[in-house]
Request: fold
Amino acid sequence: MNTGHVPRVLVVIPARGGSKGVPGKNVALVGGVPLVARAVRAALASQRVTDVVVSTDDASIAAAAAAAGAGVIARPEIIAGDTSNSEAALMHALNRFEAERDVTVDVLVMVQCTSPFLTPSDVSGVVARVIDDGFDTAHTAAPFHGFIWRESDGPAEPGEVGAQGVNHDKKYRQRRQDRTQEFVETGAVYAMRAAGFRRAGHRFFGRTALVSTNPARVLEIDEPADLERAHALAPLIDGYDNGYDAGAPFTPAPAPTRADVDAVVLDFDGTQTDDRVWIDASGRETVAVHRGDGLGIAALRRAGLKVLVLSTEKNPVVAARARKLEVPVLQGIDRKDFALKQWCEEQGVDPQRVLYAGNDVNDLPCFTLVGWPVAVADAQPEARAAARTTTTSNGGHGAVREIAAWLLGKELYKS
Reply:
């Protein structure tokens, strides 16, 4: 969607007042803030959003939305009943907004206030997949590793009745690392090209992208028990402070130790460098690295941990750095997760005992594969949100040495 103008991105938050499962749900307090206000705040904090409105038929929801900074669009009763779908509310809000403002919306985003722990990076992530990456639609999804079953009274196989596996063969239970990664739709945020939505009338037309989000934040409030869980989690998630803004990831796990990890896999650009490159007149590239990172990698090798540099770019700089560090390197890799999985098999390493350090969205598939996904401090919001923990040092400024200190402690300083 590179049309030479700043795309208008409209967030619509559908919030009707007639919930029967949880009466007054959309103004229920979680962490002392009405659910609708939490959604408005997350949307307004996204730098990719230009406008935020709440579509509602309820005066108390409208008041809470306006107080949080959103515009309010009154939803007609005919599309505010129990059987009304979200698409009807989206279409009505889109039409009203464009008519009243005399503007054209480029990207329409639906944010659900029943997902209390969504972040600004969730919103930015789905918008980026549409605007920057050319997808028609995008939505948040969480990595899923469960085995799904379906009950059946009829015979699924000769001589067999009863429950059958949906996403697996019950006779052959693959290890988690050998299965195709699956994702669960979180229900929190959806983005779509506005023109395409008008034509299709639903939110999943054309090419759809998934935006991986932190499973620790995934919760949809559909019944009273869900609201109770939100009340219990809010002090932990809302109170977590790692020095970032409201879009920072919730990382309940502490930093790993040597007992948790058998191998360390490191992205290069943005992780071992500050993601900048210098190019001279002949086209040769140079980058800056941190001497402390080299010390840390040497200490990891001495401690018996396997170390690998894994890079999407194929660049003599990467190879030269790996040679100096005396560690193997895989570069020019399109699917880093495939390469990482194969390397783990060759080395006899359980991916759940691998620490992978990265900084950007191309690291997310590896994050879902390993037991310890780590983002450097200045990583992209999507990477920070998917990481299990985050360094306090930026990429290229000692982040790898910090990781070595986590794992080795005082052993780091032994020669």
